[in-house]
Predict the 3D structure of the following.
Amino acid sequence: MQLEPGRQASELVWEFDAGSSIKSSPALDDGKIFFGSDNGTFYAVSEFDGSLVWTFQTEAPIQSAPLISKGLIFFGNDDGAFYALESTGSRVVERWRFNASSQIRSFRPSGDGPLVYFGCEDGHVYGCRHEDGEQRYHYVSNGPVRAAPLWHNNKLYFGSDTFYAEAF
């Protein structure tokens, strides 16, 4: 497989040692790759050379994929904390944190609608305002919600371990 003229897929471009397992799918924005790891650290590394830009430490493993929406970076971790970070160059600032009822392992939050939505291992689905994290939506499904929710045409869609897809 050829990636670009003159370079084969087997050629390593760069690597970054996170010091722990990485189960979080990455997100890309403004030349930075964002992801979390099992040591509770959320990373921003250069897309171009893999150099560390900044880290943000949490108290538990991060398995959820980050979402970048409306100038913020959103992700959750295994102690139920859902974070909104603001990245400016080589600095990161926590804008807000919402404490959910259980581990947050959803594949990627949804931030296309009026709120940012995410699911938890105990079946709870939350919607928080982008700007301040105020909870504006809450629903309890009958099973863990790990799949990425989707906001479309003023409806929220998500699936859970109950074998059902749900829409509200």
Summary: The mean pLDDT is 90. Residues 65-167 form a domain with the Lipocalin fold (CATH 2.40.128.630).
